[in-house]
Amino acid sequence: MFGEYLPILMMMGVAAVICTVMVLGSYLLGPKRVTKYKSSPYECGVAPLGDAFERVPIKFYLVAILFVLFDIEVVFLWSWLTVFKDSPLDFKIFTGVALLIYMILWIIGDAYVIKVGAIEWDESTSLAPEKLIDSKPIAVNSPVVPQTIEAK
Questions:
Q1: Is residue 65 within 8 Å of residue 58, measured between CB atoms?
Q2: Domain boundary assignment for the chain
Q3: Residue 46 phi, psi dihedral angles, 5° rounding
């Protein structure tokens, strides 16, 4: 049984050796010029602006999550439509009902997202944290101490 996999293991070993030799050769023989841009974060070829540890507004996270959910919906619809034409009637009814339930839940979810304003791009969600009224800058290496709220 091991003999069947021996050519594959040999190929993986040769590939690992070639990759290791190429990386080590580049490291040992390549130029070692140190510039201020090599130790800074990369921003599409332009000089970096600000600190690398800036907070990203939550609106980008919400849009990304909504995009992933939309992609999942498209994958479900596409896979259902590809097998729908040649499937028996009972399968069409069962999957049609399941898809209808899924679409109703999706529409309810979209209505909720619009109602709570998760995708609105107003100034309260697009300002940098230091420009918001109650935000205080936090040092990168300092521990965050929770604040207590006194009852009146």
A1: no
A2: 61-119
A3: -105, 165
49-72 burial, b for 16+ CB within 10 Å, e for fewer?
Answer: eeeeeeeeeebeeeeeeeeeeeee
d(C-alpha 40, C-alpha 52), whole Å: 8
- At 135 the pLDDT is 47
Averaged pLDDT for residues 111-133: 65
Any residues with CB less than 8 A from the CB of 109 and at least 6 apart, and which?
69
Tokens of 97: 């009902």
State pLDDT tens for residues 42-90: 666 666 666 666 676 777 777 788 888 888 888 878 888 888 888 899 9
DSSP symbol at 129: G
- What was the pLDDT predicted at 141? 52
Instruction: Please tell me the distance from the alpha carbon of residue 149 to that of residue 42, in angstroms, as a whole number.
Output: 40
Close Cβ partners of 76 (under 8 Å, ≥ 6 residues apart): 99, 102
